[in-house]
Hints:
Strand order of the largest sheet of chain A: 6-7-8-3-9-10
Number of helices of chain B: 10
CATH architecture of the domain at 1-93 and 213-274 in chain B: 3-Layer(aba) Sandwich
Oligomer: heterodimer
Distance between the termini of chain B: 42 Å
Number of helices of chain A: 10
Distance between the termini of chain A: 40 Å
CATH topology of the domain at 1-93 and 213-274 in chain B: Rossmann fold
Largest sheet of chain B: 6 strands, mixed
Amino acid sequence: MSEILKIQSLNVTPKSAPSRLLVNNVALTLEAGKTTCIVGESGSGKSLTALSVMGLLSKQLQASGSISFQGQDLTRLSEQAMQKIRGAKIGMIFQEPMTSLNPVLTVGYQIGEALATHLGLKNAALKARVEALLEQVGIPADRYGSYPDELSGGQRQRVIIAMAIACEPALLIADEPTTALDVTVQAQILKLLDELKTRMNMAMLFITHDFGVVSDIADDVIVMFRGEIVEAGDKNTVLTKPLHPYTQALLACVPDAEGKKKLKPMDYAWLNAGAAA
Amino acid sequence: MSQENSKEVLIGRNLVKTYTQRSGRFGFGTKQVKALDDVSVSLKAGSTLAVVGESGSGKSTLARCLLQLQPFDGGEVWFQGTNLATLDKEALRGMRRHMQMVFQDPFASLNPRMKVGEIVGEGLLIHGLGNAAEREEKMLRMLQRVGLTADDASKYPHQFSGGQRQRIGIARALVLEPKVVVCDEPVSALDVSIQAQILLLLKELQAEMGLSYLFITHDLRVVRHIANEVVVMQQGKVMESGEVEQIYTAPQQDYTRQLLSAIPGQQKAARKAA
């Protein structure tokens, strides 16, 4: 398996308070054809980790550490060099399918933008490629001229996916891509992402807070708590035999569809135990 | 109302609600959308009825019509043996005290300019319950019951986390000692760790205060843990209804099976087989 992304000792801090570690010493490795899920509660630093990789952190924040993508350290690249990678070699999908699309441009045009910018495709060749992409994500090619408001939520998320994979990126970053969708649509989108990942041999970094989604889509799982990775490993180990008390407590909160498990409130006793030790 | 229905605290019969929607690119045309198409539900005292369905299925419209927060085009709503349509404005306002609501978004549903104590105590004031000292005491007791402190009464909503704000929303609804509480996706905006705390709190309060919940959600995992009965809605119609166990283990409708098989976290093989 080839290594696509390697993050080492990544810290993210506010520029105004450099001692506050929002992301604390995060290290992870992504391989081609594998999906790694980052799970954690709000504020655990999972989105900031992803934004650091894309170089899209807010100006009030700064990242340090190394982010090596296909052997290139992204933290040392200029903004211009980063723009060439973003959208071409690293694809991105965000949560809201409603706000990520421009309402006054056709979806065909929006999918084609990245192809025109990064690959220099034009006219008939561009249109043919966009139509092929639409088919690939399960939208009829004659929707090329449709506007976002003419599509359903699930179809819009498919358009976003088509935009993200247009240049056949080596790495796909998906930040809660199904949170805003209905369950039946969510299941379809997860299946689509999984198929595309396999077919295109992409590495996928998938951010979610839903353990159900994790167990459906992940190969590896990383659990984050207050900026730090508390546990990482392959899916089955983390989900069935979690070692860290935080992972155990978090899994105990998740309601199961069978209703067999007794719901437990979050238990932070381990935090105090750790502090006392 | 017949004797056998006396345990049912809230009943909606053959409810119909039609919206007029603009259609066409410039909105010159109109079309009728049936948000509720002959929907009947009944909520038993002290139990939880979950209404599940995808967006646009009419579940929130149903809740608003049952609470008389929205006029509807047909059907009737009975609360504790009274047809609410027969009440005048004044009587209906008195009745509202017994039918409260907990909203989805704990950020948007609290007035940012009011202190928590005012937010929770406002209902008591509006309904003229007790004197100032009694209202204050009730408000403080309720805050403590949902896991907040007396000091929190003088703070503003922005000083709280999402889970705490949802506790404020619950305190505001329950301080009036209602009979029926409509919970509209009360935990879908919360982290899973907070979600479990809020669900357990709602269950405890139900047992203590004898509340009946109408629980609106799209999360079928949550339903299994909190509901006694389930109504499955799609496009304004009730597709299937019954006891939780029965719906989960022996769903009768294709749509219900489809919803159940889409719950994330099941073995992939099982999903493909469904």
